[in-house]
Amino acid sequence: KELLGQPHNILRHPDVPQCAFKILYELLEKGEEFFGFVKNLKKDGGYYWVFANITPSYDESGKMIGYYSVRRKPIDGFKKVIEPLYNSLKELESSGGMNASYQKVQELLKSKNIRFNELMLGIQKGEINEL
């Protein structure tokens, strides 16, 4: 009951780089899904990881009216890829702001010739084990 009607970022753990949320909203605004690893806060101060799939919702006329999210348990071993990536992005954000970390993600995607969702799904499927 405490969370109903509250902004979703009430659960946001500070270890998740801000650029992840920029990418999330960019994809949703284009009508695309988002896949990604999210570390959430618990009421007791702890945390938990989820593999989130967030999708736009539309009304009968095709107007975007919101989003729905499905969260799954991340694959075993995902942290060995995600935590170093998120740590490096957080470091960039502390010195150069969100645009610096966002640019780093774009460079990573370009170097691997993949899109963000392909990267995240590849990690979740165990197909990408290092960056």
Report what the structure shows.
With 131 residues, this protein is α+β, with helices and mostly antiparallel strands. 41% of the residues lie in helices and 22% in strands. It is built from 4 helices and 3 strands. The chain has a 3-stranded antiparallel sheet with strand order 1-2-3. A hairpin with a 5-residue loop joins strand 1 and strand 2. The protein is globular and about 40 Å long.
Rg, nearest Å: 15 Å
Annotation field: number of helices: 4
Shape: globular
Helix proportion: 40-55%
Query: Biggest sheet, open or closed, and with what strands and sense?
Result: 3 strands, antiparallel
Widest sheet: strand ordering: 1-2-3
Q: What's the count of strands? A: 3
Structural class: alpha+beta
Unreliable spans: none
Order of helices and strands: HEEEHHH
Pick out its properties:
131 residues, alpha+beta, 3-stranded antiparallel β-sheet, 4 helices, globular
Set out the fold topology.
Blueprint: H1 18-29, E1 34-41, E2 47-58, E3 64-72, H2 79-96, H3 98-112, H4 116-124
Helix pairs in contact: 1-3, 2-3
Summed up:
The chain has helices spanning 18-29, 79-96, 98-112, 116-124; strands spanning 34-41, 47-58, 64-72. It is an alpha+beta fold.
